[in-house]
Structure formats: structure tokens, C-alpha cells
Amino acid sequence: MYKPISDNKRFEPKMKTGDINKWRTRLLECHEQIPYDLLLLADETIEAINKYVFDSNIYVVEIGHKLIAAYVMYPLNENEVEIKNIAVDKAYQGKGIGRFLLQDASVRAKEENRQSLLIGTAAVALKQLNLYQKAGFELFDVKYDFFITNYPEPIFQDGVMLKDMIMLRKAIK
Ligand code: ACO
């Protein structure tokens, strides 16, 4: 069962919400359902999501009771945390929420005293690579054959079979 890490006392965010511009995020509580419908926009299968989601904190944006965006923060070690999944409901994409979520994740990484925030995406995901670099992330590694090794079926995006994952990192100051 999903249990926010801060409940486990592995780390405790000092702020309950990130409040930048008009959007705000909150930590998903352990009694709430994992928003797989959102997370499946950014990852292929529930099995793949389950490999990281139970050891992560999930932050969500909501309008009324509807979750419209989420990101998943997975601690790699004491110093580094990775955004394993970031997704905005299709109806709300292109309104700056993705950019806000990346800012929010940086704030939370700082609150957790992390030194680096990581994110990975397919080498063909040009929109995402553009967004992450505008948000201050820099390329530092390639996980070759990641999508071939970690998924049972080939994944295609814009007519290209996904193969390698580009890893980006942002220093948290
Ligand atoms: N074409 C090219 N670039 C675009 C487009 C587009 N159609 N739309 C947005 N962008 C880029 C631009 O650089 C934009 O910057 P700008 O404001 O200067 O124009 C930037 O993205 C920010 O746009 P936002 O509106 O903040 O992005 P959005 O709210 O749509 O969120 C996200 C971006 C999370 C990628 C969203 O589109 C989404 O959920 N996509 C499906 C799931 C996904 O691909 N997730 C990432 C996978 S990798 C991972 O999860 C670790």
C-alpha cells in the first residue's frame, strides 16, 4: 500500500504545500488512492509505476476534488531525489502547470536538504527535454536501452521506438 515517506519519518517536509503563483501542491495521504490515471500519462504501465511509487512521495494539484496534476519524488540517497513521474491532465496541459510542478519539486528538494534533483525522459521526448532544461536541469547521463530493458513491449512515441533515457540534473541551492 502507498504510504507517504514523510509518514515513515524518512524525511519530513517543513512546508505542507508549495505555493507558487495560483497553483499549489499537497502531499497525497496514505489513505488516498494512487492517481494511476494521471501517472499513466507519463509512464507506460501500472507495473512500471509500482516499481517506484511505494517508496516515493506523491504531490498533487487539485481543483475541487479532482486531481489535475501530480509528480512523484523518489529518494535515490541522502543527497539526491528523482522526479520519477510528472503528469498534467490533458485538459490542463500547456497552461504552465508542468513548469510550476518542476519549481515546486525544487522547493521540496531544498526543504529535504537534497543537493540534486534528477529527472529522466526518453531521448525522443523533445517537448519534455525542452521544458526540463528551461527549468534549470542539465543533461548528465544516458541510460542506454532503458526502455527496452525495463518494459515488456516496445514503446513508440511520434513513430519512434523508445530506447534510451536521457538523465538531467538540477543543483539545489
Ligand atoms: N510543444 C513543444 N513544447 C511545449 C509544448 C508543445 N506542444 N507544450 C509545452 N511545451 C513546453 C514549452 O517549453 C513550455 O514552455 P513555455 O511556457 O516557455 O512555452 C513548457 O513546456 C512548459 O509548459 P507547461 O504548460 O508548463 O507544461 P504542461 O503543464 O503541459 O506539463 C508535461 C508538461 C508534464 C510534460 C505535460 O505535458 C504532460 O503531462 N505530458 C504527458 C506526460 C509526460 O510526458 N510526462 C513527462 C514524462 S518524463 C517523467 O515523467 C519523468
C-alpha termini separation: 33 Å
Estimated share of beta-strand residues: 25-35%
Rg, nearest Å: 15 Å
The unreliable regions are: 8-19
Structural class: alpha+beta
Please give the number of β-strands: 10
Q: What is the H/E order?
A: EEHHEEEHEHEHEEE
Give the count of helical stretches.
5
Which distinct ligands sit in these coordinates?
acetyl coenzyme *A
Shape, please?
Answer: globular
Q: Main sheet: which strands, in order across?
A: 1-2-3-4-5-6-10-7
Mean pLDDT: 90
Q: Biggest sheet, in brief?
A: 8 strands, mixed
**Percent in helix:** 10-25%
Labels describing this entry:
globular; 8-stranded mixed sheet; binds acetyl coenzyme *A; 173 residues; 5 helices; two-stranded antiparallel sheet; alpha+beta
Write the layout of secondary structure elements.
Blueprint lengths: L16 E4 L2 E5 L8 H4 L6 H5 L6 E7 L2 E10 L4 E9 L8 H15 L4 E7 L3 H9 L3 E6 L2 H4 L6 E2 L2 E2 L3 E7 L2
Parallel strand pairs: 5-6
Antiparallel strand pairs: 1-2, 2-3, 3-4, 4-5, 6-10, 7-10, 8-9
Bound molecules: acetyl coenzyme *A.
Give a short summary of the structure.
This protein has 173 residues and is α+β, with helices and mostly antiparallel strands.
